[in-house]
User: Fold this.
Amino acid sequence: MFTNILSAKRRNLKTSLFALGLCITGPVSASDYSENERSFQDKPVDTWMLQYEADDFSDEVTRAQIIFAPKNFAEQQSYFFRCLNYSTNFSVQFLEEQKYLENSDGSLTNRSKKFAKGGFIYHDEQRLKVSVDGDSENYDIAVGGQTRNLTPLFKADVPNTPDLLSMSFHFEFYFKDMPSFTSKNSDDNSRRFFKQLKQALKTGKPLEFELFSPNSRVHKFSFDSERLKSFAPENVLEFCVIDRELRDE
Assistant:
């Protein structure tokens, strides 16, 4: 199970992932590891990237970040796992033209106007359908859109134009070993999606997404679970999702 970890080369803090701002720190007894599925030059393209922290004595993973940089960010989605001791955040990022989000009067719905100065000019619920191995779930998911930092994770060569928004939505999973003094809990969307994500990562079956935006716009994309399973060490995926149980379940 731990073959990939034992064979991984220790890197210093000047790895390619740290250049992307994904710095992980931890106790003295832990070491940082970073791996890229495929090599790249100036920017990551069509590759999974992993950085994780593991205890030197037990090889137990204590923190991890997993990112997929698409081949063409202008037309494809990226995926991002942020895995901590008591929680995992899974998010999806993509680009969208503003005209597909506008109301009939040309305005944008923004339920988080306090963040508008930071470039977040769109925030609304959209319908999301997720399927794995023939079973599907429907969600009303909060989707945000911003005008700044269109591709902060990948530094892709996408023109920063006023009519193009960086879109994202996410699920937050809180695990049962979280300290009792905290009140955080997974919402209904996250609970249902967690089961689908865990099934996909266990079986290697793809997750199929359909996001229904305003103006009859439909985004269809697929999460290649088998490809991630082939790249990431097994115990990293166990730490992030597979061996975890949600709080109060």
